[in-house]
Structures are given as structure tokens and as C-alpha cells.
Amino acid sequence: MKNLIVYFSKSGNNKFLADKLASALDAPIEVLYPKGFNMLFFLLNLNFGIKPIQNKLHDFDRIILVGPVMMGRFIPPLKAFVTKYKSEIKQLVFVTCCGSGDEVKMEKFGHGHVFNDLETLLGNKLEFSEALPVGLTLSPEQKSNSDAIMKVRLDEANFSGAIAQRFDNLVARLI
């Protein structure tokens, strides 16, 4: 299956994840460039779209969209990509490196809401969604510390244990 990794990253965590996926799957990678994105626009739910991508999506069997979930919402650059290119997407997998853990995914700011929104938006074009919560890199006593979660920056040194295992399971599912 021919994959294309498309990503947006604010903190660098989702870029790290996208790069690892591209390497593991030997897939090309493309970054999304929003037309104006900042927290004020996000909070006001303003979306100015994205700049055109370079690759032709119809050349790929599957798009692996990688990006953050913020405050339980599908952020504007990712939503703009799906909306703009929906007709060209054959299959999409959404992967997020996020702050919300599995135990809170359906709470107000959890990633589960984005997964549901994507299912509604894409229907059977959505193959599946997967979260790799950054809290998986933390010690048990730090996992409930929101400040510690927000400060995590993924790198080769901390990408081990539970988060690495979840990544390996994701790659196996994608192969």
C-alpha cells in the first residue's frame, strides 16, 4: 500500500511522530502550512485554510494524517486539509500525539471527540484513528500533572516503554 504522511505540528511532538512513521513505512512526508494559525484564531474557531500541498493525493492509497488535538478539538489546519482534499482521499488514518490519555479521551478536552468528528466527516474513508498520549513517557506520579504533560517534547531519549510499544503496534497495523 502506498502511504503519504501529512502532518502539522505546533510543539514538535507530532513532527517527531510523523518523521518516525515516514521512516518506519518508507513513505514520503509533507508538512501542512496553515494560512494564519494562532491560539486566538483557534479559540475563536477561525480557520483561514492551508497552503496547497505538493503531492497529488490520488497517487496514494492511504493518507496518514498526523497532528495535535487541542482542547478536545480538531485543529483548523487539520480540519482544513480534510475538508479541502476529502474528495481526493481514498483512505485516511489519523494519528495524534496528544496530552489526553485513554482514560479521559471522552472528557471535555479528550481526543475521542476528534476521532468521532473525523468519523462523521469522512465516513468509510476513515480507516482508523490512534492516539499516542505524551503522558506515556512520564512516570506514574507525573501522569496526572498537566504542567508536566504540556512540557513533554518527544525525542529518541524519551520515546521508549509504553509509547514506543504503542507506536510499534501502530506501524504493524499500517503494514
If you had to describe this structure to a student in words, what would you say it looks like?
This protein has a 5-stranded parallel beta sheet, with helices on both faces. α4 links the parallel β6 and β7. The protein has a single domain (3-174), classed as Rossmann fold (3-Layer(aba) Sandwich). The chain has 6 helices and 7 strands; from the N terminus they run βαβαβββαβαβαα. It is of the alpha/beta class. It has helices spanning 13-25, 39-43, 76-85, 112-122, 146-151, 162-174, and strands at 3-7, 29-31, 62-66, 69-70, 73-74, 92-96, 126-131. The relative contact order is 0.16.
CATH H-level name... which superfamily?
Flavodoxin domain
Radius of gyration in whole Å, from Cα?
15 Å
CATH architecture: 3-Layer(aba) Sandwich
Question: How do the strands line up in the largest sheet?
Answer: 2-1-3-6-7
Distance between the termini: 8 Å
Specify the structural class: alpha/beta
Uncertain runs are none
**Major beta sheet, specifics?**
5 strands, parallel
* Percent range for β-strand residues: 15-25%
CATH topology (fold) name: Rossmann fold
CATH class: Alpha Beta
Rounded mean pLDDT is 89
Count of the domains: 1
| Annotation, overall tally of beta strands | 7
- N-to-C series of helices and strands: EHEHEEEHEHEHH
Helicity level: 25-40%
Number of helical segments? Answer: 6
Shape annotation? globular
